[in-house]
Write a structure and sequence with these properties.
The chain has 310 residues and is an alpha+beta fold. Among the domains are: 128 residues, ATP-grasp fold, B domain (D-amino Acid Aminotransferase, Chain A, domain 1), CATH 3.30.470; 57 residues, Dna Ligase, domain 1 (2-Layer Sandwich). The protein contains 10 helices and 14 strands. The strands form 4 sheets. The chain has a 6-stranded antiparallel sheet with strand order 11-10-7-8-9-12, with helices on both faces. Strands 3-6-4-5 form a 4-stranded antiparallel sheet, sandwiched between helices. It is globular and about 55 Å long.
């Protein structure tokens, strides 16, 4: 949405679009797809998913594949309350959760022990996510958050896993890759990729209950009761590129099936373990005059270079 997004300068061409809640978002995106002969649209943020799911036919009518589920399954996966209900109905472990709009703070405090997680029901990443350590903080965070959900804290950060799952158009799980990760500001900055068979098995079971196809990211933590899923993202997540680096190229797999109409080649998802990923700060220098014209084709120009800083 902004000409200051560095990703615009990483590809061959960068174009800005309105926000997903803007009525011009879909027409603008569709116009770009036609103008640049785009074969497939792969959204990477949660707010885009329900909008694109509702407007999927507009793209498909123009021969443009779109990597998003149907409106019903997408609505469940992008709604944290509905996600919990899905896990509960499937008999899978889930974090005990409450909606402050339906259950009083007093009752929540009676049923759950602090610390508690407060987050937006339709939020993403670390936006509108708070950890309340007492009742006063809980009140503040609930009032600060749009449409909040309150959940128990499951496990701890040292036992957190993020799992990338690829599902074909017949809703069969093709493969999955597990990372045991450490977070900083809501993003993975250190991860160990290994087999983790029990975690992988749980993630696949969760993925199969969603009814989704394509890609998804499932976040779990190990608890004394087992592995508990606390987040399902029906899209490619922030560790997609890291997974591709070790051989699990989910994007290529999806493009192969959605654009070329062929079965997914399992070798695209083959990877060796164990591997450790470390992330670091990176800088990108751009001619400022280029950034003053956000509706033009944005390319890095003479200052399009990086400087790696550890």
């Amino acid at each position: 949405m902004s000409s200051e997004s560095v990703g615009l300068y990483r590809g061959d061409i960068g174009l800005t679009v309105p926000s997903a809640d803007d009525t011009k978002y879909v027409p603008t995106l569709l116009q770009y797809c036609k103008e640049y002969d785009i074969d497939i649209v792969i959204p990477g943020t949660d707010p885009e998913l329900p909008v694109l799911a509702q407007n999927k036919s507009h793209f498909e009518e123009n021969g443009i594949a779109i990597h998003v589920g149907n409106p019903d399954t997408t609505a469940v996966a992008t709604d944290k309350w509905k996600t919990v209900s899905l896990l509960q109905e499937a008999g899978l472990p889930y974090p005990e959760s409450y909606l402050p709009a339906e259950t009083s703070i007093a009752r929540i405090c009676e049923n759950l022990d602090f610390p508690l997680v407060v987050k937006a029901r339709h939020g993403s990443g670390s936006n509108d996510l708070y950890i309340a350590t007492n009742r006063n903080e809980l009140n503040v965070f609930v009032n600060r958050t749009d449409n909040p959900i309150v959940q128990e804290v499951v496990g701890n950060e040292d036992s957190e896993y993020t799992v990338g799952v690829i599902i074909d158009n017949n809703r069969n799980v093709v493969d999955a890759i597990v990372m045991k990760r450490q977070l900083k500001n809501g993003s993975t900055f250190h991860a160990r990729i290994d087999s983790y068979p029990s975690v992988r098995e749980t993630a696949i079971e969760v993925a199969e209950t969603t009814g989704l196809t394509g890609s998804m990211n499932i976040q779990l933590r190990q608890t004394p009761e087992g592995r508990t899923t606390f987040e399902i993202n029906p899209r490619f997540s922030g560790t997609t590129a890291a997974r591709a680096e070790v051989g699990f190229n989910g994007v290529d797999a999806v493009v192969q099936e959605r654009v070329f109409n062929t079965e997914i080649d399992q070798t695209m998802l083959a990877y060796d373990t164990p591997v450790t990923m470390l992330r670091y700060l990176n800088e990108f220098f751009i001619n400022s005059e280029i950034m003053n014209n956000p509706q033009q084709e944005l390319q890095a120009g003479p200052y399009g270079r990086t400087s790696d800083v550890i």
